[in-house]
Amino acid sequence: MEESNKFIRLCTFESFKEIWSHYGFGTDQRDLIQREFTRIKDVTYLDHAGTTLFPESLIKRFYEDITRNLYGNPHSHNPSSQMTHDTVESVRYRILEHLNTSPEEYSVIFTAGCTAALKLVADSFPWVSASAEGSGSLFCYLTDNHTSVVGIHGVTGPQGVGTVPVLPQEVEARAQNNPLSGSDGDECLVPHLFCYPAQSNFSGRKYPLSYVRGIQSQCLYPACEHRGRWFVLLDAACFVGCSPLDLKQHPADFVPISFYKMFGFPTGLGALLVRNEVAGLLRKSYFGGGTVSAYLVDEDYFVPKPHIASRFEDGTISFLDIISLHHGFDALLKFTGGMVNIQLHTFGLARYTYMILSCLRHSNGRPVAQIYCDNEFENAAEQGAVINFNLLDGYGRVVGYSQVDKMASLFNIHLRTGCFCNTGACQAYLNISNQQVKSNLEAGHVCGDNIDLIEGRPTGSIRISFGYISSFEDCQRFLKFIANNFVAKPLRLAQERLARLQSASAAEGCSSSEELTTAPTPRPARYSLDISPAPSPETLTQEAFLKAEKSSGKTCTLTNIFIYPIKSCAAFEVTEWPLGPQGLLYDHMWMVVNENGVCLSQKREPKLCLIHPHICLASNTLRLQASGMDPISLPLETSEESPGPRTCRSKICGDRVQTVDCGERVSLWLSEFLEKPCSLIRQSPDFTRHMKIGQEDGVSPVALSLVNEAQFLLINRASVALLMDYIINR
């Protein structure tokens, strides 16, 4: 009880302020949220690395701008077009100013996003194919990189360009004090490209910006081992959302960014910043509208425009979206005072959450979380406002991230799960081999799905991330959510670790903002820090688990049986019920769909819970009742005498399912009650769907009805009571 009370005290704003003093932006953070982000009332939004959220005044100012001013196509020369051209150019200048550089140093090429910017570099970089005369160009990248960076290999591979994946620890460990000279003839002019993220989108680790000059000067690996001219692509998409980037001090050759990561709006707009010194190297084959000075239709002749932005922005740019960036910069400056303030605010929230989460223990002393990071959140220059982790149960087994995600949704907590388009980091932190990736694919797991565990091993993890609108209350609600739902009681804390982290926080909390945002003295890299290492599946055998359960003296009693004949409608309680090949007979056999055949759930249509189905096995009927409606009955099985039912296809959890329409009469009944066009469909008796999760080799597949994942769902009464308390207290 004492440690539980200590946890409660830790989850107070007073305790937070003792740990971190750089909170907010001079005004009440809650007031900012209530004024500018009314749509997130009662929502704990923790996916700012996915996208931050735009303030409502940004949209209002943008709307006022485009309704007050006349913006024409910038390729014309009339007054409205000139207005657009001048405004777009001022936005380019503002982007450069934000990154502490100038038009003399860099050019801004607008793209459809960061991925499009990366593809532009891949397609236009002057790759040299390997041949008998020379080794050719190298495409090198940190293994902790976004898929869109690694995907450049799809362009370079067919051209005979060498590929060098670089482990994070190798960059400095394999550095050489005597860089290669550039005096060995033509081979020294061969261009090579090294790509790395300013901040990992997986763990939030910030890689030293000094790598830029280190690679360019061929002091760091891999540049120190390969002659040629080295260029650096710095992926800043994740970094610039919460951190200041100084391109004058760290002049990367190519810098792709996405603006929705910074402002939340507009989406689908990014930019590639290109250092003017290297702009002339980029090659371009296709030419679109507005990119050429002259061309001929009957000859292979065209002359590109001299300025790099004009040369690479094919067609009409998204000029209204670009103009909206002015209002994004205005809002950011108005609400926060600048990127240094944002960095301190968000890092403090992440540091506080990390400290408590890493100290949470189950009643038996086992850790609650395994956190994937390379530091102890000591300095904002080496760690972003991102925490990546998996939860562990009291036996040390990983709790599937899909379970956590679904539970979080019930509490209006928005987080991210999976591998976050960063397979390299996911493999390294979760210790997943290449062969396991291939085996997981054969087992049915693909990027972005909900298969979170295969043979007890995690396929991904959970990520929470903070933005400038994040508040202490977000941390508080998240930590209480973990403690209330995933910790075996009584809750315990790792006291020694907590005292050490609190002591470090107290000391560093008094440091200046400059000290907290300056890179510390380099130290040996640790690619994986296991705060609480999860045991392998062999560590806890099924026999040992059952023995532990038995020795605990706990027994389970089945108290209620509920049938849900129609997906997302009310339950039908029984005291006994026959089993069928898909579980409880007729459970989840029907579902309601809209006019497009999309399944309706209570998330989309809450009134579904007011429809009460009742099954009568004696009369072979399904009876539907709802307030204000006459009851309606339909047969459990399709009558052989009735006209052929209309078959259709729908989707359940990504699976295509074949269904049968239950007819116009029940469709009209449902449409009247729900006040929108909809139909009732039934799983086709000729269609079989199998369970994906938890299937072992050699075991017969388990047939499913229209349920999400499994034939049965067991819920303990404590969870129901907790949920009821939550609903009552809302």
Automatic annotation (TrEMBL):
Tell me which residues bear N6-(pyridoxal phosphate)lysine: K261
- The segment(s) forming the Aminotransferase class V domain are 44-478
Where in this chain does the record put each Molybdenum cofactor sulfurase middle domain? 557-677
GO MF term list: lyase activity; molybdenum cofactor sulfurtransferase activity; molybdenum ion binding; pyridoxal phosphate binding
Q: Where is the active site?
A: C421
Task: Work out whether the entry's keyword set contains tRNA processing.
Answer: no
User: What protein family does this chain belong to?
Assistant: Belongs to the class-V pyridoxal-phosphate-dependent aminotransferase family. MOCOS subfamily.
Q: What is this protein called?
A: Molybdenum cofactor sulfurase
Q: Which organism is this protein's natural source?
A: Electrophorus voltai
Q: What gene does this protein come from?
A: MOCOS
